Amino acid sequence: MAGSAAAPTSLVELTVSCRNLRDTDVFSKSDPICVVFYQPFGSQQWTEFKRTECIDNTLNPDFATKIPIVYHFEEQQHLKFMVYDIDSKSPLLDNHDFLGEWECTLAQLVSTRTIEKPLVNRNYSGHNGTIIVTAEELSSCKEELAVQFSAQRLEKSCWFSSPSPFLEFYKANEDGSFTLVHRSEPVYKSRSPTWQTFSVPLRTFCSGDYERNIKVSCKSHKANGSHKDIGVFHTTVKKLLEGPGTHNSYWLINEEQKRKKGSSYRNSGEVLLVSAKVRQIYSFIDYLRGGMEINAFIGIDFTASNGNPQSPQSLHFINPASPNQYVRAISAVGQIIEDYDADKFFPVLGFGARMPPDFTKVSHEFFVNGDESNPYCYKVAGVVDAYYACLNRVQLYGPTNFAPIINHVARFATTHRSGDKYFILLILTDGIITDMPQTKEAIVNASILPLSIIIVGVGGAEFDSMEELDGDVVRLSSNGRYAARDIVQFVPFRDFLQGAADTNIARLRLAREVLAEVPGQVISYMKANNIAPQPSRISESHLPQDIHS
């Protein structure tokens, strides 16, 4: 059975080796060291991150020093590995012989686990050797406990009403204290409640220790927060995993009531285990390594409210010296997704334009490159070229309808529900949509599919109604049906332009914001459908392309 959501960020450990390095020493072999550089978020400058140890006299070093780095799906984390032959105790790298370097993104490493590439040295045309980098995700415990309890004969809150019981779980600390690790929902007005199944990581629940003492407190919920204690019992994960039965039936003991009633006191109710099992927690990286492919579609607003593309005031104005917001948004998000898209081909859809040759029909679902038999654009550069060409081919019109392209992508996602592919639809728009009921219906229908929808608002329009589609606060509904999960992320680009003197930083911040929820959305789909990742089966055809190729 599939596990539950892991955080969108993961701690990744890099291990570095080299083979057949160039020998720059006369009487001995090179003494190599690897120095790892990264580009801080919003910067294109290389900053030193960590050095391995120096290994004497070898051309085939296996460095013991690990490189720990936090992986973010929503950022393009550039890394550079530079290998030197250490000739002195000087900490300055310029005082040592440079052997070669290799650049990549962290996404390439986590997608493929191990990469071997030739080292590049522009000052030396011969063979410089190869570098081998392995990435491993770190986690102290990648298991979770899924457990459910019921109770019977709970003590009344007062003579005239039944309790509204809930459970609190505490793990024992080494100093004898207890830390709260989970609180259940209250079941209102019931002396025989059954609580919902809950899942919690074992590293949180018991620090991964199956025999650690767990204290469970049952209380009656009060609206003013003065919850009444019903009773307490103790258990362990090891005992819970023995399953339901008399050995997992617990008397609730209330010490105050026990003192008051003396020998006549037995208990304040009984809590029963309904089910308990430990299951694996799967991360976004696990699914990537199992061969899950990410396929991205891009939808572009060609409505007349954007303004005449020939006018400098238009959001679609073509100015090679300063790309418009559409181009910047496409580049920001597309360049991240490129690292995960196996073939780098993006289907690009337009909506809201009159189409040639007679310009009498408005289309809300047309291919931006104009080729219905092959609607794919290669890489972000191809998307931008097709977008520019389309502006000169169609007539901007309206209205602004989202539902057709959402349904278009949903049809593809419907045929890949086994977890082998996950789809992302990026919609760029300048205004308020005019088919809100149809769009809400399309999103609710799509919420059961392997699909995430990212909407970027371009320009200065008011986008208040767009927030309704983003179910972060209130779950989206349509015709009485609720979305199975939140699949929409909306952001206005202007929020990232305000106060940003560097447009490149604004672009990077946009990418980070709109993609931050995707890993969690992937995991939520997999968990809802009990899909476990396949064993790592990355082949050459699935490897992200090296940036030098």
Characteristics:
549 residues; alpha+beta; Immunoglobulin-like; 3 domains; seven-stranded mixed beta sheet; 28 strands; flat
Question: What is the topology?
Answer:
Blueprint: E1 9-19, E2 32-38, E3 47-51, E4 67-72, E5 78-85, E6 97-105, H1 106-112, E7 114-118, E8 130-138, E9 143-152, E10 165-172, E11 178-183, E12 198-201, H2 202-205, E13 214-220, E14 228-235, H3 237-240, E15 249-251, H4 255-261, E16 270-280, H5 284-289, E17 293-301, H6 325-338, E18 345-351, E19 353-354, E20 362-363, E21 366-367, E22 376-378, H7 379-391, E23 395-396, H8 403-414, E24 421-429, H9 436-446, E25 451-457, E26 477-478, E27 481-482, E28 488-492, H10 494-497, H11 503-515, H12 518-528
Helix pairs in contact: 6-7, 6-11, 8-9
Describe this protein's structure.
With 549 residues, the protein is α+β, with helices and mostly antiparallel strands. The protein has three domains: 9-138, Immunoglobulin-like; 143-280, Immunoglobulin-like; 294-532, Rossmann fold, CATH 3.40.50.410. The chain contains twelve helices and 28 strands. Strands 17, 18, 21, 22, 24, 25 and 28 form a seven-stranded mixed β-sheet that branches. A hairpin with an 8-residue loop joins strand 2 (32-38) and strand 3 (47-51).
Low-confidence segments: 1-7, 539-549
Radius of gyration: 29 Å
Specify the structural class.
alpha+beta
The major sheet is characterized as:
7 strands, mixed
CATH topology of the largest domain: Rossmann fold
Number of discrete helical segments: 12
Shape: flat
Instruction: Tell me the span between the first and last alpha carbons.
Output: 39 Å
Q: How much of the polypeptide forms β-strand, as a percent range?
A: 25-35%
Total strands: 28
CATH superfamily of the largest domain: von Willebrand factor, type A domain
CATH architecture of the largest domain: 3-Layer(aba) Sandwich
Number of domains: 3
CATH class category of the largest domain: Alpha Beta
Helix content: 10-25%
The averaged pLDDT comes out at: 88
